[in-house]
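User: My instructor asked us to take a sequence, write out its structure as tokens, and then describe one feature of it. I'm not sure where to start. Here is the sequence I was given:
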Amino acid sequence: MPLPITPERCAAIYDALRAFPPYSGWALPESDAIEFHVSKRTDIYGQYHYGADHAITVSSSLVGHWGTLTETIAHEMIHLHQSIRNTQGRAEHNREWTRLARQVCRMFGFDERRF
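Assistant: Let's start with the prediction itself. The structure tokens for your sequence are:
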């Protein structure tokens, strides 16, 4: 049975991740400052929406397990961090993103090649 994903559950995972390094050192906004959405897209697991407001969307069509949901939100939190610092540049996964992803994967035991 797939994990029932809601915006509130996404926010709870965001808050949990935010309590651990490296996120805890990044001064990320609290979850109530982020719009969380659930979509049925079949082409992406998750997406951070760049703009004036912060939003993270997770696909319930592709994400159905705790680990996948946690990794997806962790991934999008790096994009959020880069957006706040304005360091994303033209590439979605630039060198800085890769360096930060490596830190996150090592901390949480995520597979760097899949992340």
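For the description part of your assignment, you could build on this observation: The longest helix spans residues 66-85. Try explaining in your own words what that tells you about the chain.
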